[in-house]
């Protein structure tokens, strides 16, 4: 071997070692991503892409990570980079469909899933996901056929049966819905969504005894499950009803809901953020960006852009880290904190000019503790604006079968007055539609007298 050949071989070996190291970094990034350490995983993916700018796996998984962080526009761009380099990358098309589905673009989601199936007709995950989109589009018969094909290909996937049960329930075939949900539970006894689906189906079928048995079965498998305990309390009522939903219930519910939250609310004609913004504009007719504002229970940050014109500083607090990740993606908050609301307020006396809470206090029954904590956190002349679901109940509040509390208007008025605040306005408004029926609410504006 001459000198030139030796140099060529040494260069090839160096390139091979470098390539091997990069793939080690990529595999570690994927492992770190799966463990939930998104910040560290992002750094590793970017490290790979600095060396190989369009490495398709790094582009794909970085896109998935962006979406998990609420940066869905960047997610779509990154996954499309992977597809541009690797046009037959079925998993990238599938996750692109998931991003479109969860951001409400059902047409583009359908196109992405169809591309997967064109490339790989027996791709069960894409078939299942496409079935969910068809369900959301109201194409129930086609959704059932597509999900059933996914089940034929992968008959041990509990979530496929759960999705099938959801479609049958919407179609009105409650018997088949119950059968599919039971199959999902048999495959994965700890899956909360399947129990909720089966319980909902039995409740709609007026089989209340069997519905109670399902909740007890769920609690037997998972006695500390916060969602199971709260649902059972809402179903049975009486002494089981807590004064407020537990922190674990709220966090689990909204961590699970974060991915599709904005999309679902669009379909419900959700008005709470606009209503609180209108109330704020009546108190502060000219936005001057000079207020310390708290978005109390900020969720994915729907109120953030509406409050930003008033805020010298805009803080969001919520129990759900996954909802906060979505809020961060809006780029309007100066600070986002994962915390229980009353505890958070108690640690910040005389701190805010404006506290806004849109559709958060429906997870509180007893409101006196919150109202007093909010009053103590306001500066003199500050204001509190919030929404509640309106209820006709003998007591001040009631835990409803869907897991949210409704409140009697007189109860709310008495608590505000006894706290030392002044009621500026209480208005009855439609908050959203649910099952085609308007959900009536109370929009409250209260002030701390100078």
UniProtKB/TrEMBL annotation:
Molecular function terms in GO for this entry? S-adenosylmethionine-dependent methyltransferase activity
Gene3D superfamilies the UniProt entry points to: Tetratricopeptide repeat domain (1.25.40.10), Vaccinia Virus protein VP39 (3.40.50.150)
- Write down the superkingdom of origin: Bacteria
Q: Which residue numbers delimit the Methyltransferase type domain?
A: 294-386
Keyword field: TPR repeat
One of this protein's Pfam families, by short name?
A: TPR_11
Mapped TPR repeat ranges: 90-123, 124-157, 158-191
Q: What PROSITE patterns does its record include?
A: TPR, TPR_REGION
Q: What is this protein called?
A: Methyltransferase type 11 domain-containing protein
Q: Which organism is it from?
A: Candidatus Methylumidiphilus alinenensis
The organism's taxonomy opens as: Bacteria, Pseudomonadati, Pseudomonadota, Gammaproteobacteria, Methylococcales
